[in-house]
Every structure is written in C-alpha cells, then in structure tokens.
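REQUEST ID: PR-0412
SUBMITTED BY: lab tech R.K.
PRIORITY: routine
TASK: structure prediction, single protein chain
INPUT:
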Amino acid sequence: MNTEWIKARQTKYAAYATTYILVIVAVLVVANFLANRYNKSLDATSNKRFTLSDQTKKIVGELKQDLTIQYFDKPSGMQPGKDLLDRYANLSSKVHVQYVDYLKQPQLARAANITHEGTAVIQIGAKKEEAKTFDEEGVTGAMVRALKGGQRTVCVVGGSGEHRVEDTTADGLSEFQASVQKDNYKSKSINLLEKAEVPSDCTVLVVAGPTGDYIQSEVDAIKKYVENGGRALFMLDPPLKLGRKEISDNKPLVDLLASWGVTADKDLLLDENPVSQLVGLDATVPLVTTYESHPIVNELSGTATGFPISRSLDTKNGDKTSVTKLFSTSANSFATTNLNSPEIRIDPNKDKKGPFTLAAAVTYNTGKPNNQGRFIVVGSSRWAANAFLRFNGNRNLMLNMMNWLSSDEDLISIRPKEQEDRRINLTRAQFFTLRSVSQFLLPLIVVVSGVMVWWRRR
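STATUS: complete
OUTPUT:
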C-alpha cells in the first residue's frame, strides 16, 4: 500500500488547512448560538445613549404580569423600532414585543386607533396606553400610565405672584408641567383667594415662590388640606427687597411651616463652592452634590443639582410631624441677612457660615390609618422654573418629589436621558478635504504600498 501521499507536504498543508477551517467554523457556530441565546450588547457612547435608564429597569424588573408592546411602522422603519424595543424585551421574560406592518395589517392599526407609523402601544391586562413619543421616555411613560391606572393631578397655587404653569418664559413652569405630564400627572392652576379650599381632586398641591403675602384664609385651607392627609410642595424664596418685584415675608405661611417643624430663615445663601465655578455658576446658586438618606434623593448620588436665590431652613420634629433633611449647601457657604442691597458680597465677619439645610421632607401624623400627610419645603423656587429645570439633576429631583408626595416611591429613579447632539459641523472646504482624504488619498496609499511590496518580492 502506497502511503507516500500521507507524508507529502501538500497533504500536510491540506490537513492543517482543513483543521483550521473546522475550528473556525466550530467557533462561529458556537458564537452564533450563544449570541442568539444570550442577547448582550456593549454601549460605548459617552452618555450611554443605547442603555436603558435605571427607572426603566426598575419598572420592568418589578412587573408582576405580562406586558405587551405593539410597534406599528412601515418595513423601512422597523429596524429603529427594534433597536429600542429589543432592549426592553431583554430586561424581562414578561415583556413581549410585536412588530406590526402598518401597511400590510391596517386592520390592527385601525383597531388600536393608530393614525401614523412609528407608534408604540403598551398593554398590561386590559389596560392600553399609547406612547406619546417613540423614545425611551415616551415608552416608559406609557408603561407608568398603564401600571398606575388613573391620572393624578398637580394643583399649582396662583394669585400671589407665584410661578405659573402656562408661562413659557424663563421664570415660568411650562417645562415643569410638561415633565409631570410624562409621569402621568395632569396639572392645573387654582386660586385660594377665590375659594379658600383645596380641590378634592388635587393629588399634590404646589406653592411655587409666592411674592405676595397669603391671607389667613388661604393658609387655613392649606393647613386643613395637609393635616387631613394631603400632599404639598412648598418652594419659598428669600424675602428680597430689591427693585420693583420685592418678595414679601409671607408671615402667615412661614409661621404655619414653622409650627410643623420647618422654619424658613430670612437670609440669602451664598456658596463659594469651587465646583460651582467650574460649571459657570456664581455664589447665588448653591450647588448640591451630596444628599441625605431618603427615597427622594437616594438615587441622586453623584448627580449635581442647583438652587438659584435660596434661603436656609431650620428643622426639628414636632408633636405630629417627622422631619428629614434632604440636602444642604457646602461648607464653603454663607448666609447673609442683607436682603436690600443689589451688591452681592460675602462678609466672613458678619455672615453665618454653612452648611445650611436647603430642603426637608416632612410626614404628618393625622391619627388615621393609611392617611399620612406629606409635604416638602425647599428654600428656593427658581430651581424648578424653565431656566433651571434642565440643569443636571434638577428635573429628576422634582419628579422624585412628586412621586414621593403621591406615594409612588416605586417610580423614584433617574429618568431616561435626553439624547446628545454630537454632530460635527463642517464647512464646504473641510467637507471636501475630508472626503478627498477618506475616498481617494487613503485608498491610493494602500494600493501604491501593495504594488511596491509586490514589485520588491518579484
């Protein structure tokens, strides 16, 4: 028997090649099997654009029943939909995603009242909610509405110079209104001067920086509301006596809060935190980077919040109230009582040195089971206005406060991130240069190098 061919060099090379090919094929088969079974991805973007937020993970992770997401679009739009919704499906086996061709199955779109492509509908049991926008914020917001059922109402007090929800200027609360609506709240303005009674449908009462005094009947209505188990957010600015828009002392309201254990001091906080200077803030905007232990702020660790034109708070527990500090200014802060001078100047010899409490959360014991009153006091109101609400963690803090006040602690987390616009703007000359280098020069260099190597070997 001739065995010389087994020893031949060509046979050895063929065997080596066959072995390598089989190994590579085996690796590819195993890799594809694992990829299909365990769908994992790596998000290398700077702001984790393709990673779902903590809030979304928290909501999906706590699902008690199956949730179905129907996505309606044309075939050309399905891939962007899958890029987002597959991330939801990977979080839990209880999430099921259905991709519906808007053109081939118009009857399903009609049954779901879909009027345009690129729409997601979330269903939990018999409850259905349409995502207002097709992004993480819109889809997660629809989940919240489907899980929580009935809509909750935020009542914003007006009539005494407060920030207004319909105001779209820098000092308005239109951004506040839009944010709470995405979290399944509706908002409306109320006037306690017209009727000294908080409406029964108010889930949370908001007092946003009044510049005028509340009369006693308004304060009595607020007192009755909270002490009967109501929920309220009080944002009080320092009583500055500058220009035409002086801020009154609002003694009746301040006295009510003091009787509950939170005293709003007559001062202006000035913070020389070096971190504030790095982000372009002056001394009148205390920057908070550390927080106490409380459901409202536990998820904000490592996130900065800013509070322009603030006053300090003194806190103590009362007979029926339990007071918890939420956050304070830095040790570099001072409190000045000079509230009628346009010149901001720190005097270490006269001004009290910090840190100072900026916000506190309070529970009120009504004496009735499952009917606890809750309220929050913040020594600033401009932090929630349009000009500052989008600053770093301010929006998350505000929504966390709303969730705690309405007893929706399970929704407290960091909200979906807004996408960064990282496009590069090029002039015509820069675009021409970039195109020439990438399409012509670099390929030409590779070709010339290859020819030179081939010529040298030849």
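NOTES: The mean pLDDT is 86.
REVIEWED BY: pending
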